[in-house]
Amino acid sequence: MRNFLFLFSFLFSFTAFSQELNCIVVVNAEQTGNENVQVFKTLETQLNEFVNNTNWTNKTFAPQERINCSMVIIINNYNGDTFRASIQVQSSRPIFNSSYSSPVYNFNDRDFTFKYLEFQNLNYNANQFESNLVSVLAFHIYMILGIDADTFSLRGGEDYFVQARTIVGYSQQDIPTGWEPPKGGDQTRSALIDNIMSPTYKEYRSTLYNYHRNGLDKMSENPKKGKESISKSLMDLQVMNNRRANSFILRTFFDAKAEEIESIYSDGPSVNITDLVTALTRIAPTHASKWRNINF
Asked: Cα–Cα distance between 23 and 138 in angstroms, integer?
């Protein structure tokens, strides 16, 4: 009996500590006019189980270490087993010695077409295309894992980004829509991962680390020093912008961070903001109204 209880405890511990995500998946079918159709509820249940119960890495995550994230799938229309949708993916990262969670990934993926039959098995294969539904979700999951890891260690998300690029590679061959190789101005999944892994945009990943680990994580012990580190990390993005202005990855960064940056510099200890505001206005002009509120 004692051995059985030990084995049960061991298996329970492995299960409880193996999943990486604490993700809420919502399927919204209001635009179809048939939001109460059972298939949408079944899909939502299956996707929550798939995302949260699949082991996406070989690492151990304690419950408090799981990454908080959400995926909201908006079904625009459907015909039989074919669904046309968009998916909004967001994730956040806890800040040391604080109850605050910092948004790190905010991506609106507008080109999401998939086939689904109610109760069909959802299986992820790291090296082989299974379905566009699985590929799109897996891609964004590895983006979440990679960006989160980059905020804790410099370029710590490399393995996850490599896997995201692998998913792009085998998915392009089966369903190119939404996976197309980047062309000028494209905002596809392929363009996103190419930007992140390109030396042209290397400051993006170093900024993720310095902004969070040397900035936000230090705010509880020294708010002024933390704000100064955040300023320095954001100024590094100006170097990247000078190399390639108005890049897709830069817009993605500020989609997640603009409101937070405004909040950081609208209160607390005063730091030199003149150069920062000038730089932010240049590299993220669509958020100029927020930068005008910076005064600390």
From this structure: 13
- Which residues have a Cβ under 8 Å from the Cβ of 284 and sit 6 or more positions away? 250, 251, 254, 258, 291
Coil/strand/helix, residue 124: coil
- H-assigned helices in 189-293: 189-197, 202-213, 223-243, 248-264, 274-283, 288-291
pLDDT at position 178 is 86
- Give residue 185's pLDDT: 59
**Burial environment of residue 148 by CB neighbours within 10 A (0 to 12, 13 to 18, 19 or more):** buried
Block residue for tokens 């405004």: 262
pLDDT tens digits, one per residue of 63-79: 888 999 999 999 999 99
Residue 168, token pair as written in the block: 């792009």
Q: In the numeric block, which tokens belong to residue 152? A: 């804790």
Please name the amino acid found at residue 60: T
- Cβ neighbours of 128 (radius 10 Å): 9
Q: Give, for 165, the enclosing helix (H) or strand (E).
A: helix 158-172
Helix (H, G, I), strand (E, B) or coil at 109: strand
Distance CA 121, CA 103 (A): 32
pLDDT over 60 at 234, yes or no: yes
| Whole-angstrom distance, CA of residue 8 vs CA of residue 99 | 34
Are 145 and 152 a contacting pair, CB within 8 Å? no
Question: How far is C-alpha 123 from the chain's CA centre?
Answer: 21
Task: Please name the residue that has the structure tokens 């109204």.
Answer: 289
Could you give the C-alpha distances from 7 to 4, 10, 58, 59, 211, in angstroms and in order? 5, 5, 21, 21, 43
Tell me which H or E stretch contains 83.
strand 82-94
> Within a 10 A sphere around the Cβ of 95, how many other Cβ atoms?
19
- Average confidence (pLDDT) over 88-103: 97
Residue 191 has phi, psi (to 5 degrees) of: -65, -40
Distance CA 185, CA 100 (A): 34
